[in-house]
Write a structure and sequence with these properties.
By secondary structure, this protein is mostly helical. It has 8 helices and 4 strands; from the N terminus they run H-H-H-H-H-E-H-E-E-H-H-E. Helix content is 38%, strand content 6%. The chain has a 4-stranded mixed beta sheet. The longest helix has 18 residues.
Length: 226
């Protein structure tokens, strides 16, 4: 009981933050050893992952128990595992943030952190990026919505196709070709960043992967911000 309680104290006090600084959780190998891996607390940046840490060197007995039950029994039919590229991107952000913060006071360490970041960058899988996305105006956006009968929302200057409906319908791009004065397209950016959830950098990265195009609208079509 004392060991588990230490997770919410010691693992938020001292230790490295390899994956995110958006919460106070840190990594503590001693707490991890005493709690079957839970002390690798900063990896909670990826809350759906079955592991307590992504590396083979992480003290994480629970990970291997779950994996063994999955591999050799029907008790755990599937496992959720964060994509390696997402873990690497999180590490890159933290390394470069740290390097930037100490570049004036400790340039030697900052250069070493940047060197490590470059090594990690080279291992990042080549993926589709926003560079290949087209830029649409209102006409192209509406044609996409009509032709595919898709639910599309506008977030951070991108038309995002989330592949779902329900609550997204509140912000979905609505096309009515019969009206002479079309309504402004609503912008879901503020809702995405705070109204429903305070999404992390990882969530924003996933959102950008769903982008179908960058959006450029004239002044009278500037979306209302809610």
């Amino acid at each position: 009981w004392h060991c588990m309680s230490a997770v919410n104290s010691l693992a938020h006090w001292k230790g490295p933050q390899h994956f995110t600084d958006e919460m106070s959780a840190r990594g503590d190998w001693l707490v991890a050893a005493l709690t079957s891996g839970e002390g690798n607390h900063n990896f909670h940046a990826f809350p759906t992952d079955y592991r307590n840490g992504p590396f083979i060197t992480n003290v994480d007995p629970t990970r291997w128990i779950i994996w063994t039950l999955h591999k050799f029994t029907p008790l755990i039919p599937s496992l959720r595992r964060t994509e390696d590229s997402d873990v690497i991107k999180a590490q890159l952000y933290m390394l470069r943030t740290k390097a930037s913060s100490i570049s004036n006071t400790n340039p030697v360490t900052a250069r070493e952190l940047e060197r490590r970041a470059q090594v990690l960058q080279s291992s990042l899988p080549i993926q589709e990026t926003l560079k290949g996305k087209p830029t649409w105006g209102r006409t192209e956006l509406e044609d996409f919505v009509i032709s595919g009968r898709r639910t599309v929302i506008l977030i951070e200057g991108h038309a995002v196709d989330p592949g779902g409906a329900s609550i997204l319908q509140e912000y979905a791009v609505f096309v009515d070709k019969g009206t002479q004065h079309p309504q402004p397209i609503r912008d879901a950016t503020q809702a995405f960043l705070g109204r429903f959830n305070n999404h992390t950098r990882g969530a924003r990265e996933k959102m950008r992967a769903l982008s179908v195009a960058a959006i450029s609208l004239p002044a009278d079509d500037v979306p209302e911000l809610l």
